[in-house]
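Q: Second attempt. The first request was missing the SMILES, so the protein and flavin mononucleotide are both included now.
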Amino acid sequence: MIESQLRKAASIADLKRKAKSRLPGFAYEYLAGGCNNDVAVHNNRMQLDNIYLKPSYLKSCDTVDLSVNVLGQRYAAPFGIAPIGLSGIVWPRASEFQARTAHEHNIPFILSSVSTTAIEQAAELAKDNFWFQLYPPKDLAMRSDILKRCRDAGCKNLVVTIDVPSLSWRPSDIKNGLGIPPKITLKSIAQSALCPAWSFATLNSGLPEFATLKPYISEQLKMKETAQQIRHVLREVVDQTVLKRIRDEWPENLIVKGIISAEDAKMAVATGADGIIVSNHGGRQLDAAQCPAQVISTIADEVKDRTVIMVDSGVESGVDVGRYIASGAKMVFAGRAFMYGVAAFGYLGADHASFILYAELKQLLEQLRCSSVTRLPNHLV
Ligand SMILES: Cc1cc2nc3c(=O)[nH]c(=O)nc-3n(C[C@H](O)[C@H](O)[C@H](O)COP(=O)(O)O)c2cc1C
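A: Got both inputs this time. The predicted holo structure:
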């Protein structure tokens, strides 16, 4: 039964449709939405569609190789799973499912600081493919403890997100009561009642909590106070000074996420970033932001000899992964695509999203007659 449904989901768009039918409105809007007027979300799609690739039909090409070496590790494909905060609101245990998929498909998985799965549990599931995304806490002891937990869990790649100096303005989340603190409204109760699979999974797993941050939060606090405390402790704005302090404290790979200008890229590299993720946060922070597809080539030209260029925002297919790689990225992350998979089919859906991206990218290479993803830049028009 589930196999035949999976066969019918042949694209990320199919997973998105299925996810929409299974999620309460507030959870779907939290996942799919952008900020302000959703301009950046639409532009991500439009600018990716404007990247063209040219085939080499008369060249011989017997096999295609999708594997890549990134920051000292070989992955089966040049794509990975981006960090998603409050993942358990979208689907209970979503981050656990994604961590397992990452291990089984040998792709990277980045756990969000504000995920509903803890560092230790995600690392156990993703194993060598576990990366951690840090929203640096203001409290230095807490920050050091989180970094120690990452090291103890075997994490080799720390991703520091710099593009949230302010909580963004998301009209649908505000109207749905998904601000901080979250409110349970009559509307959200009614929406949940209409989605039995989501409600059942949520009842089974218990209410989502900020699992990584739990040890630092007093158990006596109610949901409202917890959310306020989290908002307070994670208030650190990441400027170059803060980034430098984290660099000094973290001996393994440091990756800076949220770069959308060559100036920030150069400053991140000067501060010692081993890698950068060119990103506009999937269009969720700055509605007037440029898109990675518009800036990645310029940024790559500036810093590619000194750091590893990665990217995310707007990926909805293996062709999109190919477009970004051709434009200069070594690794491409997708956020919503994997979450649509989980919301559509649970664990099998995370797996299926990875399968779709892989199959589409492989077909793209065959069509272009391109023997390796590392040669994709030769096909950029
Ligand atoms: C629901 C949601 C929650 C997110 N939470 C985080 C987060 O906690 N930390 C972070 O660095 N990025 C977060 N992001 C941004 C993603 O990591 C990634 O940059 C973005 O999803 C890429 O765009 P895409 O969804 O179009 O692939 C979130 C994105 C979404 C959609």
